[in-house]
Design a protein that fits this description.
A hairpin with a 5-residue loop joins strand 5 and strand 6 (133-135). This protein has helices at 13-24, 31-40, 44-50, 58-69, 87-99, 114-122, 162-175, 178-185, 198-212; strands at residues 2-6, 28-30, 78-81, 106-111, 124-127, 133-135, 154-155, 189-193. The strands form two sheets. Strands 2-3-1-4-8 form a five-stranded parallel beta sheet, sandwiched between helices. A three-stranded antiparallel beta sheet has the order 6-5-7. It is built from nine helices and eight strands. The chain has 217 residues and is of the alpha/beta class. The chain is globular.
């Protein structure tokens, strides 16, 4: 089973993908995680785009994703989170998956209001030492601004600061929204209300998957 999850930044794509990965025993491929690892290692090409809330050029993203999908762990399927973000990327993905003798089964379009997204993202906190993530609204650390796991200070990532969040939403609306029409025409798009709590969203999504791909059960 091959799934794609897309939606604006902060809508909960990563959380849902992780839950689905455990449920269906297929890997969660997050371009965001891959890019953050590259940035932490000093990849200046990526830093200049991510810190400004801009989309990374297609040719860079495509190479990363294609390499990831060729891994042995993806043999029985995958969940793509954060890709594709443009119709050109979607066309590249379709071709890359076809080469692997697979197809994208379902595209989950997660929807939430701009106010809700900004609220979620500006509440996120990150441990720069061990990478643990927190949310001061839904998943607070035991001690304010201190990581439960390693005791290091928590901080707001550059791409979670209010002005950058607004810019990222704007970029998404301008450049990514056409994907809705692209996948609607292919009749594999499912709109998902991302405003409830993660477990409710997960239950809705598994219902969609099990109706469309019953053989996965």
């Amino acid at each position: 089973m091959q799934l794609v999850i897309f939606g604006p930044p902060g809508v909960g794509k990563g959380t849902l993908a992780s839950m689905l990965s455990k449920r269906y025993n297929i890997p969660h491929i997050s371009t965001g995680d891959i890019f953050r690892n590259e940035i932490s290692s000093g990849n200046s090409e990526l830093i200049q785009y991510v810190e400004k809330g801009l989309l990374v050029p297609d040719m860079v993203v495509n190479k990363v994703v294609e390499k990831a999908l060729k891994q042995e762990i993806c043999r029985n399927g995958f969940i793509l989170d954060g890709y594709p973000r443009t119709t050109d990327q979607a066309e590249f993905l379709e071709n890359a998956v076809w080469k692997l003798k697979k197809k994208v089964d379902i595209v989950l379009n997660m929807v939430a209001s701009e106010d809700e997204i900004i609220k979620r993202m500006t509440a996120r906190r990150n441990c720069s030492k061990c990478g643990a993530l927190y949310n001061i609204i839904t998943m607070k650390p035991k001690k304010k601004d201190v990581c439960d796991k390693c005791g290091s200070a928590l901080s707001i990532r550059k791409d979670d600061e209010p002005e950058t969040v607004k810019k990222r939403i704007q970029v998404y609306q301008e450049e990514t929204s056409p994907l809705v029409d692209y996948y609607k025409k292919k009749k594999i798009l499912a709109d998902i209300d991302a405003s409830p709590r993660p477990r409710q969203v997960f239950n809705s999504v598994t219902g969609v998957i099990e109706r469309k791909i019953p053989q996965q059960q």
